Amino acid sequence: MSRKIIGAAFISLDGVVQAPGGPGEDESGGFAHGGWLEPVGDEAVYNQIDALFAEDFDLLLGRRTYEIFASFWPFQPPDNPIAAKFAKADKYVLTASDMPLDWQTSHRLADLGALSQLKAQDGRDLIIQGSSTLYPQLLERGLLDRLILMIAPVMLGPGKRLFGDGTPARTMKLVEQRTGAGGCLIASYEPAGPLKTGTFETQPPSSLELARREQVKAGTW
Fold first, then answer.
1. pLDDT for 74-99, tens place per residue?
2. Are 42 and 180 in contact (CB under 8 A)?
3. pTM for the structure as a whole
């Protein structure tokens, strides 16, 4: 049975995914709100994390998230359950760089072709935690099987977003949702094909509307 790729992301209401875990995690771009998840995290988030890592899994990471994880998780107490599971998992890092991968059971994937070959093989599912830059690429190639958003009731303003430039137009199907007592929302989606468009118009556009549309096209609206 081929592997599935399952993405899981902590995300604010305005779409920011940067540095949920703590101050200093990722201050690039002047981000000043590191550690925004802990004050609002509730049982919905914690139960989802438990479920996500309940079965055997491997990790799929981008370079920056790998560096964050490799400098944190191996140094946690041995009785930390997540650290123990991450140590056991194979870590696949999608990067074209020649950076050393010193964390045990770490492997380099040079490109999406290598990832496609890995996904087609029998093995444990690949879980993405963080690594926001992977999502546009995975969606474009049809490699993402499930997306789990753990949405926190906060607004962060500027910061790294899950779906930035290069995200392809797609339709997603909601397959599960839960809400925690603290207001966190867990929403799980699976790809449902190309984006479809339609219209609510029941009459031809007026001359004023046609003129407005021409302004939009000309960049003068």
1. 999 989 999 999 999 999 999 988 88
2. yes
3. 0.93
